[in-house]
Amino acid sequence: MSKTPYFTYIVLCADNTLYTGIATDLERRIEEHNSSDKGAKYTKARRPVTLVYSEKHLNRSQASKREYSIKKMSRKKKQILINI
């Protein structure tokens, strides 16, 4: 089992879309989305992004499974999850 926690997160993009991902360092990852070439292709054209939701997991497997389940949700269900 990994000692490094993983996070599943949702960011709100400048065009009002939602992007879901996983990371070990949320602050660094949000910075990458906003100003680095390491940001996701999807978010590069939709900057700036704002972190609106995160969950902590014990390992990458749990975080990835949760990311997958969130990505399958409708926009409405995601909005309920993040309380918008």
Structure description:
21% of the residues are buried. Strand 1 (6-12) and strand 2 (18-23) form a beta hairpin. This protein is an alpha+beta fold. It contains 4 helices and 3 strands. The mean pLDDT is 94. It is globular. A 3-stranded antiparallel beta sheet has the order 2-1-3, sandwiched between helices. The chain has a single domain (6-82), classed as GIY-YIG endonuclease (3-Layer(aba) Sandwich), CATH 3.40.1440.
Comma- or semicolon-separated keywords:
84 residues, alpha+beta, 42% helix
How would you concisely characterize the structure shown here?
The chain has helices spanning 26-35, 41-44, 60-72, 75-82, and strands at 6-12, 18-23, 50-57. With 84 residues, the protein is α+β, with helices and mostly antiparallel strands.
Task: Describe the secondary structure blueprint for this structure.
Layout: E1 6-12, E2 18-23, H1 26-35, H2 41-44, E3 50-57, H3 60-72, H4 75-82
Antiparallel strand pairs: 1-2, 1-3
**Annotated CATH homologous superfamily:** GIY-YIG endonuclease
Helix content: 40-55%
Average the pLDDT over all residues and give the rounded result: 94
Structural class: alpha+beta
Strand order of the largest sheet: 2-1-3
Molecular shape: globular
The proportion of strand residues reads 25-35%
What is the number of helices?
A: 4
Largest sheet: 3 strands, antiparallel
**Which CATH architecture would you pick?**
3-Layer(aba) Sandwich
Rounded to the nearest angstrom, the distance between the terminal CA atoms is 34 Å
Give the SSE string.
EEHHEHH
How is the CATH topology named?
GIY-YIG endonuclease
Q: Which regions are unreliable across 5 or more consecutive residues at pLDDT < 50? A: none
- Supply the number of structural domains: 1
Rg, alpha carbons? 12 Å
CATH class: Alpha Beta
